[in-house]
Amino acid sequence: RGRTKPPSKIPPTEFRRFYDRGDLPISVAHSNHLRIGWKCEIDKLDYHHYLPIFFDGLREKDEPYKFLALQGCCDLLEKGGPKILPTIPQLIIPIKTALNTRDPEIVCATLSVIQQLVVSGELIGEALVPYYRQLLPMFNFYKGKNKNMGDHIDYGQRRRANIGELVEETLGLLEIHGGEDAFINIKYMVPSYESCILN
């Protein structure tokens, strides 16, 4: 009794469906380390179509889907520039769904991608503020949890999987890049959050 709700079973993702059908322009490239082979130039892709699919894949726990989705998100965000901002409304449900799995490994991967998303272009942080009510409830749930999740996440990212620290870091980035309304909106959803700008 009194145990936290177990992580929910992860239903198959759209990402997996598209990949299995051969409808994604990627393959696993084996060199010195695992990486994605893109079959076209990333910046020529239709971001409205592909970015939400890759974000949906953040819920994957099986390889190669897990690696391809996470690394694909990172590659798309790195090269997307101005193409990213218009896709924000389409990314909210995949992000929320991934956070709501309550699976620590998926949550850590998703937080890392949110961090990259926030800094990947002008005004993206501000564009996320209206969606805090959908995104931040799980931040509140995990904020005090400083359990180390081990080294699960290492796809070109710093090895950080302490979920409480990742939440704190991500909230800080949301505040810094979210404009003047960010702090009050974060505080409303995550009452224990202390401003990293005001303090």
Strand order of the biggest β-sheet = 1-2
Tell me about the largest β-sheet: 2 strands, antiparallel
Tally of helical runs: 10
Order of helices and strands: HEEHHHHHHHHH
Helical percent range?
A: 40-55%
User: In angstroms, what is the radius of gyration?
Assistant: 17 Å
- Distance between the first and last residues' Cα: 39 Å
Number of strands: 2
Q: Would you kindly provide a written description of the structure presented here, covering whatever features stand out?
A:
- The chain is mainly alpha-helical and 199 residues long.
- The chain has 10 helices and 2 strands.
- It has helices at 14-20, 47-56, 65-80, 88-99, 104-118, 124-128, 132-135, 137-142, 163-177, 182-189; strands at 26-30, 34-38.
- β1 and β2 form a beta hairpin.
- α2 (47-56) runs antiparallel to α3 (65-80), α2 runs parallel beside α4 and α3 runs parallel beside α5.
- The longest helix has 16 residues, at 65-80.
Outline of the structure:
It is built from ten helices and two strands, in the order αββααααααααα. The protein is mostly helical.
